[in-house]
Amino acid sequence: MTKTFSIEQVKSRKRATPEADLQKQLFDAMRVLMPHGAFYTHFPMGGGGFWHGMRMKRLGAVRGVPDVLIIWEGKTFWLELKSPDGTLSLEQRCVGEDLRKAGCRVEVARSVGQALGHIRSFGIPLRDVPYRVEAA
Fold first, then answer.
1. What is the pLDDT of residue 66?
2. pTM value?
3. Separation of alpha carbons 4 and 80, rounded Å
4. pLDDT of 11 strictly over 50
5. What domains lie within the chain, and their CATH numbers?
6. pLDDT above 70 as % of the chain
7. Main-chain phi, psi angles of 133, to 5 degrees
8. Pairing label, strands 75-81, 105-109
9. What is the mean pLDDT of residues 91-113?
């Protein structure tokens, strides 16, 4: 008995990733505008499925950690990036409060301009160079 298989071509849909797009735009801007001596990074905590999440948790990962860590002159700052209509999860609100209790500034940004405004409010002197944010 012969079995036949057919492979249907499925149209790929580009997933909307407004927060990832915002993060890419912000890091592009930060590479140009951040002063020498500032440290900044992202914690890639999401994705990878259940087992990856379990492994990360065993290794000490904490759900709800903000997207962007910035260290300037011995002070630690955090930015959570959200789409214009995105909301903070319960874990994000709790971790934000814990970070504030530990002495960190934590802010939420919904645009590159708002994120750069928060960075300035942290007392970080951004370079005075022309920079234009490209649309995603």
1. 96
2. 0.81
3. 50
4. no
5. 18-121 (3.40.1350.10)
6. 83
7. -80, 125
8. parallel
9. 97
Range list of β-strands (E), the chain: 39-42, 68-72, 75-81, 105-109
Q: For 31, phi and psi rounded to 5 degrees?
A: -60, -30
Distances (CA, A) of 112 to 55, 66, 67, 136: 32, 16, 13, 12
For residue 95, how many other CB atoms are within 10 A of its CB?
20
For residue 12, the model assigns a pLDDT of: 42
Mean pLDDT for all residues in the chain: 86
Judge whether 70 and 122 are in contact, CB under 8 Å. Answer: yes
Structure tokens given for 102:
């530990």
Q: Are 50 and 79 in contact (CB under 8 A)?
A: no
Rounded Cα–Cα distance for residues 108 and 114 (Å): 9
Task: For the chain, give the number of residues.
Answer: 136
